[in-house]
Amino acid sequence: MKHLLLAFLAFFSFSCLAQIKTISFNSEKLKEKRDLFVSLPASYEKNKTKQYPLLVLLDGDYLLNPFTGALIYGSYWDDLPEVIIVGIAQNKNDQRNTDCGVDPVTGMPDGKSVDFFDFISLELIPMIQKEYRVTNFKIIAGHDTTASFLNFFLYKDRPLFDAYISLSPEFPVNMEQTMPDLLANSKTPLFYYLSTADGDEKKMRERILNLDTSLKTIKNPDLNYKFEDFKEASHYSLVLHSIPSALYQIFSVAEPISVLEYKTKIVTLKEGYVEYLKKKYDIIENSFGIKNPIRISDFKAIEAAILENKDYNELDALAILADKNYPKSMLGDYELAIMFEKKQDNPRAVRYYMSGFNKEEIADLTKDMMFAKAEELKKTFAKKPKIKGKVGQDTEAKQEVIEETPTADAPVTEEKKQ
Predict the structure, then answer these.
(1) Which residue, among 353, 344, 342, 347, has the nearest Cα to 306 in the 3D structure?
(2) Torsion angle, CA of 155/107/166/286, rounded to 10 degrees?
(3) Rounded CA gap, 402 and 236, in Å?
(4) Model pTM greater than 0.90?
């Protein structure tokens, strides 16, 4: 496990060097300049219109690389979305304790920590929203002292952040008694992640476990809560265990369709497979502000469910969705060709295989495959059927016209999809 963690850290450090820039922010609230570490996604400069969720890191000095590395790794496999990360430097002159100090009696921010709270709310977030392409979805994360301080943003009627990652928080007085009511009465969707480890400081760990016991009784449907208690981990190593777990909790709905999701939620449907796919991506956009084309793998999963349940007419709706997401590709024509083939209407199946032949290849759909499928189906209707009619009936029925298989540079006139 130690070797795995070391490799994990090495990957983080190596991956993040070219991603991070440091800016000096002159804060009127703090009456000083504060360093900020900004990590922009790899696609940020390539896609000038794309927007990204925001992750604000307290203890940015040492939490930035682990979070950035986990997100780089997750986005590489298309499991996690790309995220803009802004880490706040807090390692000079005992800044983190000053920033997060509380009144020993009330347990509330006091003096300089009120200024730090206002710095984040009134200066940092507005600056980021002005300078960078961020969505409205915001996450905040911290460790021990800063992990407890981030909870104060929940004390507002409308919390500033949508997701909270609290890694082994060191609570001020009364916080574990206050938190359950705050989360139970929240009227907006919230993600809350909490973790500790058996190697944590004993008193701190006991209070975290007590909070977890209370939070597990909450019935608020708007609260997405996750707690983890890591075995054989220290106060510091639990951070590396927690980060990917917290991120996958928050962005689970944005993951590609998994085998489990397919087996338990999709193939078991009696109808509405395409509608399920639409709703999945509507939730992603509405929750995180992320607007991406539907993954090809998700199209294939829905296609597989339709075929398994023999609800072939749904392939028509899937084709329309494919044309909307990938208008230049052969995906929409392929879905229609499959539909007509399964319905044993081979002339129309050939027509759409031929139409797709002249469009862009996508994923495992190729021109060679479309050509081969068309040629294979042509063999099934080499002879034209005779037209029969009653005496006096108009026997000039419209015939399906089977075009020659086009060459790569011969244009195809596409029939209106039916």
Answers:
(1) 342
(2) 10
(3) 69
(4) no
Same-domain pairing of 264 and 143: no
Whole-angstrom distance, CA of residue 402 vs CA of residue 19: 55
Same domain, residue pair 139 and 44: yes
Based on the domain organization, do 226 and 285 belong to the same domain? no
**DSSP secondary structure letters along 180-236:** HHHHHT--S-EEEEEEEEEES-HHHHHHHHHHHHHHTT---TTEEEEEEEEEEEETT
Q: Residue 296 maps to which CATH number?
A: 1.25.40.10
Give the separation between CA 312 and CA 340, rounded to whole angstroms: 8
Longest alpha-carbon distance in the chain: 102
d(CA 243, CA 141): 9
Which tokens in the block code for residue 218? Answer: 């909450």
Task: Quote helix, strand, coil % in the chain, to nearest 5.
Answer: 45, 15, 35
Helix spans in 89-124 (H)? 95-99, 112-118
Residue 398 belongs to some domain of the structure: no
Q: Is 296 helix (H, G, I), strand (E, B) or coil?
A: helix
Q: Which amino acid is at 366?
A: T
Residue-wise pLDDT tens digits, 205-221: 999 999 999 999 999 99
Q: Are 102 and 109 in contact (CB under 8 A)?
A: yes
Q: Is 23 helix (H, G, I), strand (E, B) or coil?
A: strand
State how far the alpha carbon of 346 is from the alpha carbons of 201, 239, 259, in Å.
71, 58, 32
| Cα-only R_g, the chain | 28
Burial (CB count <10 Å: 0-12, 13-18, 19+), residue 69: buried
What would the mean pLDDT of 373-391 be, rounded to a whole number? 71
pLDDT digits (tens, 9 = 90+) for 243-286: 999 999 999 999 999 999 999 999 999 999 999 999 999 999 99
Q: Which tens digits make up the pLDDT trace of 76-91?
A: 999 999 999 999 999 9
Structural domain that includes position 351 = 259-381
For the chain, how far is it from start to end, CA to CA, in angstroms?
57
